[in-house]
């Protein structure tokens, strides 16, 4: 994630080896002791550790992120939604 971004946004990841190693040991031990029942909690702990290590550095104000880049394309006419419905794809949004 550290090299991901563009001119307006940059993502930085600060995952420390020691904390990740300790988490892996804890997850492995608890998964072994509970005979695999701890696996969903271990997966969530791993995901939480990875997500909390990411920070976003922005060169623009956060309220500008929700504005369209091209004002001509701003009105949404639903053509893309209709095309997805015709193909039978469900995005579950």
3D structure, described in words:
With 93 residues, this protein is of the alpha+beta class. Helix content is 43%, strand content 13%. The chain contains three helices and three strands; from the N terminus they run ββααβα. It has a three-stranded antiparallel sheet with strand order 1-2-3. The mean pLDDT is 81.
Q: Determine the structural class based on helices, strands and strand pairing.
A: alpha+beta
Main sheet specs:
3 strands, antiparallel
Supply Rg: 21 Å
Order of SSEs: EEHHEH
* Uncertain runs: none
Spatial arrangement of strands, main beta sheet: 1-2-3
End-to-end Cα distance, whole Å, is 26 Å
Q: How many individual helices? A: 3
- Proportion of strand residues: 5-15%
Shape verdict: flat
Q: What's the total number of strands?
A: 3
Q: Provide the residue-averaged pLDDT.
A: 81
Helix content: 40-55%
